[in-house]
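Subject: sequence -> structure tokens, single chain

Hey, anyone have a minute? Need the predicted structure for the following. Not urgent.
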Amino acid sequence: MHKKAFIGFAGAMLAAAACAVEWTNLTPENRIGGRMVSEGYLRGKVVLFDGRDYSKKEHAEDIAALQKIWTGYKSKPFIVLGGHSGAPGEALAKKLDKLGVTYPVYAGASPLVPKYAEGADEPTLVPVSGDCIRVYDASGRRLYSGDSIHKASGIAGSAIFSARRPAGPQVWKALLDYEIEFLPGQAYLRLKDLMDQKEEMAKLQAKYPADMRRYSETYAKLKDSEEVRKLAKLVELSRLVRDRDKSSKSSKRLTKSLLEKEIEKYEPLKKSSNPCIVQEAKNAIADMKFAAASMKK
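Reply:
Had a minute. Here:
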């Protein structure tokens, strides 16, 4: 495995405009084990990608370390995604099951990265070559590329925290611009939270008048949409379920059957004419179903 330069967390967060990472081979037939995911499901989530030949014995210790990270963060907006670079098969699926792997592993899964062919004016998108660990933040920025699971874990943890409480207005703006484009429910909630903070609003308006004018107009449009407001309630509910304190009284009262009724109530959002609303609703409902699977009736 070739070591690559570590990309500083803060610097990477400010380095580029919001962009969705493109992925390959996240299809049902390529799934080897773990949770079912899709390219759309990864939107708005911190992703720790691990590309390697999962059939090799010498990787068992690293796989166990990745499973531990997934177990620790799986209730957050986060995914460990394994990209198996070797030959798939039932034997590998059984091996991963025996190792206790529950994070998603797909044959040939990989982020697509730009590559210039000789003499070409525009790059083409190609899968990452060779074994590699990468971390992407909630708005699709690459924060790390290398071979250290320990570094990747720390950076992923910081990115998860920053997705909820951005460190500074520039990071906040980068996440919000991404959410406005792809995740209207989350954008509405983030803007609503900001509009309720009068002192913070005044500071931002003084520093970024044009941006804040644009965000205020966007918030007004989102607020006028009954569909977006309903989506925001679904997103809030999925967060509460996903991040719940299982020892609290309210969490103990939450049962699988109650959650299934809530899921049914929001299913119509998956038929929206807005593809971003459809995808975000699918993501939230998938998280709720994942949580429900571990609940009692």
